[in-house]
Please model this.
Amino acid sequence: MIAELSGKVAVVTGAGSGIGRGLCVRAAAAGMHVVAADVEQGALDDTVGLLPDGSLGVRTDVSDPAQVEALADRAYAQWGAVHLLCNNAGVFQAGVLWERTVADWEWVLGVNLWGIVHGIRAFVPRMIAQGTEGDVVSTSSLAGIVRNAFSGPYNTSKFAALGITECLAHDLRATGSLIGASVLVPGSVNICIADSSRNRPTDLAEGMGAEDAAFVDQALADMTSTGADPAHVADLVLDAVRTGQFVIPTSPGYDKQIETRATALLHREVPQGLPFD
Model:
């Protein structure tokens, strides 16, 4: 929890677009110093251009632990502290589970799960050593609570994102830390995640363009085009950080999704996915 955001320092990954850009803009508006990170340099530059002078942009591939450590080094060299870490970078891979290549899995888990692991390892020890209140917000998804067909790698990574954040919250509490943890579970948000393959590394290109994935990508693009405003999602995140809220849902259907999943599990059944909203 961070009761007063003004004057504090926020680091946001996946800052080049969507929720990440919204978080940077809203954090700056709340008086925070912002360190924006993204793998896409042009998009990162555009985000930094929306922020106050002195804001820092650091090109970072969160799947690379050395680059995340370098991001932490830059943030601490610039500001001497980090109070809010938003592990927000994420990518999407669709398609039938058994048709996915090892490269598909390495790409998605590298960003969506290992990016969070690297963020925790690089920042949390330093944040604890500060002796100040703080928060680590990691982005999961409504797909980290319920699942639908044809999105196995993404759903798996987002279930893991929820699980690791819950573990982090327990560890921080058990060790008496002043740092909190929160998990963002967006539903449909107007972001460009359906086009995330634009940043896929060439050495992990095997499996790109598969027919069983293309129609899901198009459906996701259609759905997200009418989704929530990323700025609204960012406002929800900052409100949750101020109050110490753990789960940060963005959609009205969240309660029903949880109820439906829990009921199915209690009945030893496969949970049925409901439409995202």
Observations:
- The chain has a mean pLDDT of 93.
